[in-house]
Design a protein that fits this description.
This protein is of the alpha/beta class. It has one domain: Rossmann fold. It has 5 helices and 5 strands, in the order E-H-E-H-E-H-E-H-H-E. Strands 3-2-1-4-5 form a 5-stranded parallel β-sheet, sandwiched between helices. Helix 1 packs parallel to helix 2.
């Protein structure tokens, strides 16, 4: 990602301000098929379409299940018996393709936060988009928020999408 102006406001010279020039060529979408993740998918596809970026959608399997992608993604009956997280990847693929956005999808194994950040780095992503599941109280203290930990650990911008 190219950034034209760097530094705090007191360091920026007003005469140096020109056209905005943030380039977003690659967007990483992390999905689990939840309602916030589907909203994040819509944001990611819209941003990619608007900015002319490509999209990589991933689901990080933390080892609980060995999840596989179906070969066909268009037909509704294809998804019967598949985990909702895998269907979330299919939704991302179909939505991107129908909007002319180059897309690839993958199931990745490992710790969720670390694999999202690592995959973004390997892909050369300029932004990460994901949904916020909205854990609160003891669940959040015990398990933490994936979105929050990605936001804190990622070296690139992160868009977190919430559902009312």
């Amino acid at each position: 990602m190219k950034v034209c102006i760097k530094g705090a406001a007191e360091q920026v010279k007003m005469g140096e301000i020109d056209d905005v020039c943030l380039d977003f060529d690659r967007i990483l979408l992390a999905t689990d098929g939840s309602e916030p993740a589907i909203l994040a998918t819509q944001y990611a596809v819209t941003l990619a379409k608007t900015l002319g970026a490509s999209l990589k959608a991933i689901f990080v399997d933390d080892g609980m299940e060995a999840l596989q992608l179906p070969e066909e993604t268009e037909a509704d009956d294809t998804w019967e018996g598949y985990h909702p997280s895998i269907k979330g990847l299919g939704i991302a693929k179909v939505m991107a393709e129908r909007n002319g956005v180059p897309v690839e999808i993958a199931v990745i194994q490992g710790g969720v936060t670390k694999r999202i950040i690592k995959t973004a780095e390997e892909y050369g992503a300029d932004m990460i988009v994901l949904g916020e599941t909205g854990r609160t109280g003891l669940k959040r203290l015990g398990m933490g928020s994936i979105a929050e930990s990605v936001l804190r650990g990622a070296p690139i911008p992160v868009l977190v999408c919430k559902v009312d």
